[in-house]
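Tutorial, part two.
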Amino acid sequence: MIKNICHRILRKWYLLLPLTGGGWVGVSSCDSYINITPKGAVTVDSARQYYELIVNPMRCYNPASYYYLTDDAWAKESNILGYESTSFHGINFTFNEQADRTLLADNNLYENMYAYILRMNLIIDNIDEADGSQELKALAKAEARTFRAFDHFLAVNTFAKAYDPATAQQDGGVCIIDHYDLEATPRKATVAQVYDFIIRELEESVGLLQEKPENIYHPNRAYGYGLLSQVYLFHRDWDKARQAAEASLKLNSALVDYNVIKAAGGVARCKDYNRENNPEVLSYMWMGSGWTTEEAALYYYGMISPELKQLFEPDDLRYSLFLRDTGTSIVNWFDTGSGAAIWTPASTSERFTYMTVGLRTAEVYLIAAEANARLGNLDAAADYVNRLRAKRFSAPQLLTSSTPQQEMVQTIISERRKELLFGFHRFFDLKRLNTEPEYRKTVTRTFPVVNVSETYPQRTYTLRPDSRLYIIPFPRSARDKNPNLTLNTDE
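Running the prediction step on this input gives:
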């Protein structure tokens, strides 16, 4: 009986969930609350309140467990030297397959993903019992399913192999959590099953999303189609990825013209595109521990490698406006002379929002471009890239359809590297492309550069396309709670 009462209480409560009106909803354990509502607390018993629970301005993802497993990232040497076997940063930066990652914490990345999923399940499972219109209930469930799909997509691409049609039916994936049950110990689904679930969630929900929600933290229809195009791209459904990307761009094709920012005197002086007013942003999600610490995360993770730096052309405003390789104000975060560059801190002010995790229209353009290139529609592929480059260069070099197909795809992949800095983008891209012989890459890194010594001689480190490092182990805390959560690596 106590268990049943507790579950009824938990349907009404959730720990520190912000409401759009500024209130908060709390949850506690059965040890503290059985059938007593604390004085002054806010309970959730209407469809409107459940709908407001979807809003989460602090949706964030800590990249510590995977960030340096790319050819785009770079680090201050003092954060790596001496930690080559004892931290995710040191292990990943030096591509150390001999280290034991299973004892390391993932800085709540896994817990956050599944906490967000639990929050959406709370809405989906209980809103039908609440007071309110059927229309609002249907909308709330569609939005919740969309965000639930996003977190499953992040989880499967972080903690499992990339989708490969030849092996996905057997490859271990992640747990599909589609009901609110605090006592469940679910078993892992395969990678194929997780993708089937994600695609079904989005296909059944996207048409119910609003074009312009009342709050920017609700998922809109352009985001729904954009996320679906991203999932289709990773699933190698090229034509469906093209169709979904084009559906998204029909709803929102806005691109910020970086020439306007340059003309205004740079990001520190441009008065537009602030934290909640960037027309490119389709979903607001943050790297790090919360949107208030996004700037701190970009200090720590905002370096690009010498290799990526060399990809930027002289008139590419994405470099000249946002990145630099000298300056005393960044000395604590950056090694001058390393050949790398760092994101300019001023660019994360209230005057401009870049968005490191959330989806932007710029990414949808590149998805449309890659999907068309994969299909052999080279005119369309070049057009999508050129429309983006026109807003990013002071004098862009335009692509032509005479570019061979494989070269066109490689060009689009390089454009993704320059446009989608930070967050999970390059890590996920390397994983998916490594399943294709024509696009897989062996990553090498020579390090250190400025602090070479007898203790720390310069070495070249190699990340193989089939390295087990690309699969992040489930955190020990999650494995202890659920014995069914077996590792997808051989560690």
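The longest helix spans residues 134-159. In part three we will examine how such features are distributed along the chain.
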